Amino acid sequence: MAANTSGEAEGSTTTTEEIETKNENSEVESHEDGDNSSEKETMDWDDFVDDVALKDNEITLSEEDKKRLKEEAEEIKEKGNQQFRDGEFRESAVNYTLALRTCPLSFPIERSKLYSNRAASKMKLGLSKSAIEDCSLAIELNPTFVRALWRRAQLYESTDKLDESLEDCKKILEIDPSHKEALIAARKLPDLINERNEKLKTEMMSKLKDLGNLFLRPFGLSTDNFQVNQDPSSGGYSVNFKQ
């Protein structure tokens, strides 16, 4: 996938809005085949943003100072956008972090975009867990931010959090019923969730059978001496003993 994807999202001097929309649905494809149990790369930079310190500092700022800092943050973000386009994902994430440390808290929409952009950089680095956290921060600042919701939905799906992914897709469709990718995902995910649940149920029954045999063996019995029947109406199970 080309570098000019959703990380360069908001505020770029080029037509990045169109580029991002076009490539959103493929943003996490490069992460789907790997081991989702751990991050592919270790984050070797400090991405902490001290909101408490920002809040304390902002008390002393004039409106003019706030505007100036916002403009500085925009310039830093543009640098990060260019680095993202150039495939320098770590460097872009570092600059989005610097922009977040610069932009006053009184500009939540701008900060939301910065968190969303940083999430895109982290996605490219295989830092799925941290990217999800950034998406959540972006959504907390702007609950109707479709781009961040969709990005998080993709990340949830790629890390096997299918229920969470479906919930985000539903939220997206409440905001934008015509969102093509969310519509497709919302139709696909219920089947994937059912398939996963059936697999988990089968694995659980197998483990219960092994455990049952362990306890029944001293009595000359096994789980084969018990018949398990499922009630089709309630979905519950009953157990009958058989010789």
Walk me through what this model shows:
61% of the residues lie in helices and 4% in strands. The chain is built from nine helices and two strands, in the order αααααααααββ. It has helices at residues 16-23, 51-58, 63-85, 89-102, 108-124, 128-141, 146-158, 162-175, 180-216; strands at 226-230, 237-241. A two-stranded antiparallel sheet has the order 1-2. Helix 4 (89-102) runs antiparallel to helix 5. With 243 residues, it is mainly alpha-helical. It is elongated.
The gist of it:
The chain has 243 residues and is mainly alpha-helical. It has a two-stranded antiparallel sheet with strand order 1-2.
Number of helices: 9
Strand content: under 5%
CA(first)-CA(last) distance: 62 Å
Low-confidence stretches: 1-9, 11-38
General form: elongated
Q: What is the topology, as strand order, of the major beta sheet?
A: 1-2
Give average pLDDT, whole number: 84
The proportion of residues forming helix, as a percent range, comes to: 55-70%
What's the number of extended β-strand segments?
2
| Secondary-structure content class | mainly alpha
Radius of gyration: 24 Å
Largest sheet: 2 strands, antiparallel
Helix and strand element order: HHHHHHHHHEE
Biased composition (Basic and acidic residues): 19-43
InterPro entries: TPR-like_helical_dom_sf (IPR011990), TPR_domain_protein (IPR052769), TPR_rpt (IPR019734)
Coiled coil: 52-86
Region (Disordered): 1-47
Give me some keywords for this one.
243 residues; mainly alpha; TPR_domain_protein; 9 helices; coiled coil; TPR-like_helical_dom_sf; elongated; Tetratricopeptide repeat protein 1; two-stranded antiparallel sheet; TPR_rpt
